[in-house]
Amino acid sequence: MVQNVLFKGIIPPVSTIFNENLKLDRQGMEKLIDFLIDSGVHGLFFLGSGGEFSQMSFEERKEVAAFATEYVKGRVPVLIGTGGTNTREIIALNQHAKEIGADGVVIINPYYWPLTEENLLAHYGEIAENTELPILLYNFPNLTGQDLTPEIVLKLVDKYPNIVGIKETVDMAGHIREMILKVKSKHPHFSVLAGFDDHLLNTLSLGGDGAISASGNFAPELTVGIYQAFQNKNYEKAIELHKRLAFLPLMYKLDSPFVNVVKEATKLRGLDISTHVLPPARPLSEEKKQELIAILKDASLL
Fold first, then answer.
1. Residue 80's Cα: distance from chain center in Å?
2. Residue tagged active-site, from 124, 138, 227, 252
3. What is the reported pTM?
């Protein structure tokens, strides 16, 4: 049986919207979800880095996952971020994701202890054996301190059929290229998705499948536009949009964590959402908001 690519296109890592008491703002989330689906995205990823999973308790993560999945109601595929530093907790979150009807889970590698390759393979193996859901690996070595190399990924994909893709949040075209050449060439159904906005076009041109990148929240017309233009072989349009998209990574240098920047950009683009963030993230300063406005103008988004 030939497996198809399950997850492709533009899948925004959706911001989690909070009220002033830092509780889930359901109306704000509904507004953002509807806007993204209306913009033609190909899926939604909740509780990624931009969804502030790392600042949440186990119960808060379950609350966001259940609410979001139920509200999307099958309009597009839903991915839930269940990664963490604790293998047992990840297995429990995967079980919850299955119960609420999510379409897959995205699992970053543990980010406190660097693991030996043997322990990393055992970690993902135990997780894969304990869920029926499709799993996307999430490689973000800048935050985890440990790279998921194409060699490690291939070992996992060879052994576990439910590991079906990877979010490559790496600022290296060469890493993405190797992931495609070494893993996808052997397992064509395996999704390779860029994690950084400005790697979408080269990921597609190398034979990858799309992007899970932050700008999908506030400028989906750029990434969705590039993806569609590429599929239609309208490369001139794809390059034109890519040149606008290229300004956006400058935004993410304005603050760290940059979850506040993404929410402010979403609000500046006309979606009236609350921009509260969970500590240790903090509100964006007025000065940095002005810098953000300038970047959005450079990208012809304001």
1. 10
2. 138
3. 0.97
User: ω before 161 within 30° of 0 (cis)?
Assistant: no
Is 285 catalytic? The answer is no
Q: Is 54 a catalytic residue?
A: no
Which pLDDT band, with edges at 50, 70 and 90, does 5 fall under?
A: confident
pLDDT mean over 271-283: 97
DSSP count for the chain of H helices, then E strands:
12, 9
Catalytic residue among 23, 73, 112, 300: 112
Give the whole-angstrom CA distance, residue 84 versus residue 94: 12
Q: Could you say which of 8, 62, 167, 289 is catalytic?
A: 167
Helix (H) or strand (E) holding 235: helix 235-245
pLDDT tens per residue across span 142-160: 999 999 999 999 999 999 9
Catalytic residue from among 15, 49, 54, 215: 49
117 torsion bin: left (phi>0), alpha (psi -120 to 50), beta (else): alpha
Q: How many CB atoms lie within 10 A of CB 45?
A: 28
Is 235 a catalytic site residue? no
Structural contact between residues 205 and 192, judged by C-beta atoms closer than 8 angstroms:
no
- Whether the CB-CB separation of 32 and 14 falls below 8 Å is answered with yes
Helix ranges (DSSP H) in 180-234: 200-205, 220-231
Paired with 9 in beta bridges are: 210
What does the alpha-carbon distance between residue 23 and residue 106 come to, in Å, rounded to a whole number? 23
Q: Count of CB atoms within 10 A of residue 267's CB?
A: 15
State yes or no: is 256 an active-site residue. Answer: no
State residue 138's pLDDT score.
Answer: 98
